C-alpha cells in the first residue's frame, strides 16, 4: 500500500488556514487529518463541524476526521454534512460500531476505528471486514506533543491480519522522522503528524519530505508488508 503523510491540520496556524493547507498540498500531503475532541471523552476541546467546513473550502486533498468524542453515533452526521471524506471513531464510545460503519458507507464516506495504545487489535475483529482504515494511537488521546509510545505499534501486524492489506493502517501521536520509521517498519502506511510538520525547524515542505523519506527508507530496509 502507498505510504501517506497526513498533516494534523488542527496544529497548524489556524489564523492562516488557507495558506497552511496550500503549503501542505504543495509539499505533497496525501490527505489532511483533523482531530476533534469534546472535553469529555478526552480532556481537550479541539475542532468542530464549522472548522471542518473551513478546511474543506481550502483543501483539494481528502480530509479525514478523527472523532475523540463520547457520542460518535450522534456527532457523525454533523461531520458528514460538513464534508468529511472519512471518519475514524472510537468503538468503545459507540453504541453500535458496525451500524456506524455502515452509516458512513451509506453516506459515501470512508469508515475507520481508532484504538488507544492499550487496546488490543482483536477489538476490531467483529467488524474488521467492513473497515476502510484502522488507527493505532501511539499516544494517549487528548493532547498534542506527547512522547511516542512504540507499544501502540505492536498491534499493527495483527491489524493487517484481521483487516487485510487493502485497509489503511494509521499511526497518530508523537510522529517525527525517527518514530515514523519505527511505525512504518511495523506495517503502518498512513502517518498523522502535527508538530513534526507545523513546529519543525524547517519549512513545512521540507518537514513533510523529511518524514516521507524516513518512512520510505524504513520500508526499504525493514521489509515491511507495505509497498
Structure characterization notes:
The chain has 227 residues and is α/β, with parallel strands linked by helices. It has one domain (4-222): Aldolase class I (TIM Barrel). Helices cover 35% and strands 19% of the residues. It has helices at residues 17-26, 49-58, 72-82, 97-106, 156-163, 179-186, 195-198, 204-222, and strands at 4-7, 32-38, 45-46, 63-68, 86-90, 110-115, 133-137, 168-172, 190-193. A nine-stranded mixed β-sheet has the order 1-9-8-7-6-5-4-2-3. Helix 1 (17-26) crosses helix 2, helix 2 (49-58) packs parallel to helix 3 and helix 6 packs across helix 8 (204-222). The longest helix is centred in the C-terminal third of the chain and has 19 residues, at 204-222. The relative contact order is 0.16. The mean pLDDT is 94.
Beta-strand portion reads: 15-25%
> How many helical elements?
8
Helix content, binned percent: 25-40%
CATH-level-2 architecture: Alpha-Beta Barrel
CATH class wording? Alpha Beta
What series of H and E elements makes up the topology?
Answer: EHEEHEHEHEEHEHEHH
- Largest sheet, strands/sense/barrel: 9 strands, mixed
Low-pLDDT sequence parts: none
Between the first and last Cα atoms, what is the distance in angstroms?
5 Å
- CATH superfamily grouping: Aldolase class I
What is the arithmetic mean of pLDDT? 94
Count of individual domains: 1
User: What is the spatial order of strands in the main beta sheet?
Assistant: 1-9-8-7-6-5-4-2-3
CATH fold assignment: TIM Barrel
Count of beta strands: 9
Amino acid at each position: 500500500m502507498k505510504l501517506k503523510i497526513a498533516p494534523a491540520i488542527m496544529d497548524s496556524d489556524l489564523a492562516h488556514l488557507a495558506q497552511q493547507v496550500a503549503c501542505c498540498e504543495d509539499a505533497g500531503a496525501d490527505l489532511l487529518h483533523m482531530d476533534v475532541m469534546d472535553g469529555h471523552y478526552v480532556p481537550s476541546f479541539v475542532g468542530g463541524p464549522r472548522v471542518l467546513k473551513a478546511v474543506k473550502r481550502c483543501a483539494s486533498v481528502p480530509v479525514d476526521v478523527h472523532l475523540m468524542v463520547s457520542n460518535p453515533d450522534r456527532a457523525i452526521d454533523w461531520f458528514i454534512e460538513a464534508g468529511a471524506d472519512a471518519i475514524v471513531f472510537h468503538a468503545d464510545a459507540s453504541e453500535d460500531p458496525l451500524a456506524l460503519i455502515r452509516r458512513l458507507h451509506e453516506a459515501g464516506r470512508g469508515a475507520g476505528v481508532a484504538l488507544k495504545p492499550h487496546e488490543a487489535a482483536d477489538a476490531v475483529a467483529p467488524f474488521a471486514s467492513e473497515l476502510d482504515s484502522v488507527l493505532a494511537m501511539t499516544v494517549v488521546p487528548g493532547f498534542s506533543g506527547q512522547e511516542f509510545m512504540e507499544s501502540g505499534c505492536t498491534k499493527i501486524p495483527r491489524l493487517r491480519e484481521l483487516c487485510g492489506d487493502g485497509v489503511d493502517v494509521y499511526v497518530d501521536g508523537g510522529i517525527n522522522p525517527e518514530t515514523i520509521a519505527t511505525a512504518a517498519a511495523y506495517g503502518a502506511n498512513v502517518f498523522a503528524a502535527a508538530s513534526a510538520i507545523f513546529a519543525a525547524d524547517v519549512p513545512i515542505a521540507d518537514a513533510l519530505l523529511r518524514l516521507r523519506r524516513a518512512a520510505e527508507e524504513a520500508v526499504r530496509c525493514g521489509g515491511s508488508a507495505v509497498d
